[in-house]
Amino acid sequence: MSIQNILLAAAGGATLLVLARIIYLLFLHPLAKFPGPIWARLTDGYGAYHSWLGDAHLDMWRLHEKHGDFVRYMPNSVFIRNADALHAIYSTKAYASVVKSPHYQVLQAGSVGSTFSLRGGHDHLRRRRIVSTALSEKAQRGMDPRIAVHVRKFCEAVLPARSGELGEPMNMAEWCGYLTFDLMSDLVFSASYNLLGREKFRYMPEVIDKSNVRMSVLAYMPIIAAWRAVDAIFFRDALIARNRFLRFVVRAVRERANRALGKWAPDALDPCKPRDDIYSSLAKARDPDTGEGFTASEMVSESTTLVVAGSDTTSTAIAATLFYLADNRYAYEKAAKEVREVFAGKTLGPEEVLSGPELSSCSYLRACIDEALRMSPPNGAALTREVLPGGLTVGDVYIPGGVTVAVPLYAIHHDERYYVDPFTYRPERWLEDDGTGSVKRARLVFNPFSLGMRGCLGRSLAYHELMTTVATVLYLGDFKFAEGPMSKVGRGVPGAEHGRHRENEYQLHEHITGQKHGPWLRFSRRDISA
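Above: the chain's sequence. Below: its structure in token form.
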């Protein structure tokens, strides 16, 4: 047989195999009955592509609007948009039916993973119990003075020096990032990087964003990491950013450990006796059931996750809340009036913020924050889970074992069955029932921090930072959008496609967490001494 015939036979065989694979995926696969785009049914590359574009959350919403509650988003994945699925997949009782999907393995920091990236089992439970001890309400109360310092530095950075003056435009995507990175690095490591005050480390939020673009694509198509040439070509900047960030965290952990031992490097950032922080809590914490603690490698992984998750997502939530308040003056005025009446006559020292039971009583402010988290969730795409061998039933639909499932957060947060006028910012929806159980329905699927045993351990800390920051800004000052082209940054663009056209929506670009631009705001300082 000639070489030409051999090549033709090989090509014919390969073609038959591809056709057989296509026929199987479209017509014979256990998920063939579920609707979805043809490319999504054929390749994981569909999800990877939209993750690379940063519009996966919008694409999932669009597909659910077109096809209904069940959408086949990848060959072996079904995404579901309803309350039954949310609780079947993420609640505590779901622990017996699902584990985190294999996609999480590409997100692990270091060689041993973290509480976030571990899929399940004994190690995940052990780590979670230890971290929950370090982030307990008692531990968080001890963080209040340090949170206050950074929030006041943020306020002083954005507010003009004298009352009555209107400050220069400030990019909240940047300044909120500086605030939360400073805050989390202090809470975790007792380190003072001072992004709010100097430029030296202001590259860090951008480094995290660049790294997350690659990681978000790998979460849908992990095989790309094995194609080293492809990975290096398409994600060169992301790989450089990832390595730069990991070096930064390893150095921070090493310096924190040295300070605990009384050893300080010449360029140590905080050469004093370390205060109690999350690092020391993690180092001392033990699993209450087994008495086990963290290894050195696990400390690096958990610290990395806490800094990224605690800074990136919270900064997005603060920026989104400020955007929606600036864009909805009636809500701004009600929130400001509530805060200023509750704290009327209070004089704040240079390192004081609004806090305590009075802050917790600001229900309208909390509704404004929840509505911002609903409209623009920092993690708006899909937290995927793999169904265990026993299968999973959602409503009357059975999902076999081995299938990846998820409830796309942005999609369910904009479902008209649970939220009337879902693309309208209306904080009252969390406070005023319309007589049909609307508040209860809204709460039923509100899930910005996930649920159950795999939910966000830093939820209460995040809310505390959000309430403290926004309330203190409203008490000390006022703000509005900058004029001209800067007033459009962060908004949708009229005529744009696939959900990018909504001008009243704070547009996020989904790459593990929501990356953002703007809003550009101008601040003025109130005279609170009068």
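The CA atoms of residues 259 and 274 lie 7 Å apart.
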